[in-house]
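Quarterly update from the structural biology core.
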Amino acid sequence: MEELARLAGITVRTLRFYRERKLIRPPRREGRIAWYDDQHLARLRTISALLERGHTLSGIAELADALDHGRGVADLLGVDTPTEEEPVRLTPEELAARFEGEVTPENLAAALELGYLGTDGNEIVHISRRLLDVSSALVREGIPLAEVLAAGKRVREHTDALADMFARMVLRHAPEDDLERLRPLARSVVEAEFSLALDRRLHKRD
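Predicted structure, tokenized:
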């Protein structure tokens, strides 16, 4: 415990307090010896970084609980599921830096529920680099993360319906293997129609 506290730059008393608040998981015990590992150290450094950014211990405790009980990376990405999206691994500090002041327990829970985030050990995994980049860019433009996530949920509903429609159309006329080969065509249709829809929306303002 003394060695872990020294490496984390905190006092043993503070470490005990964090343990009591369940901000870190219990150590592995062998007899009377308690063993801490790199994941404990990473979590303590994360706590320090979040405190420096103005988060409260109560909020950090909720974040830690959400992460510890979030979806695992295997559940997030699926097994043997083809994807064009590139997952991104982040530390909690990196996630907080991406969304300055917006990584609240409520937003984190919403992202976990939506399937944007999962956990792998002490790392956070975002399901898509493109979605991560766009989400953080919108937040930098002043749009609250809660609204970005709410919009993402609505987009998910519509895109699920579009994907189902395209799959049904292809499978009526082609082998199932063609579905993966033809997915770029479906993506192009959706991108073009969305661009045209934005054009129509902008013209209404003129």
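The chain has eleven helices and five strands.
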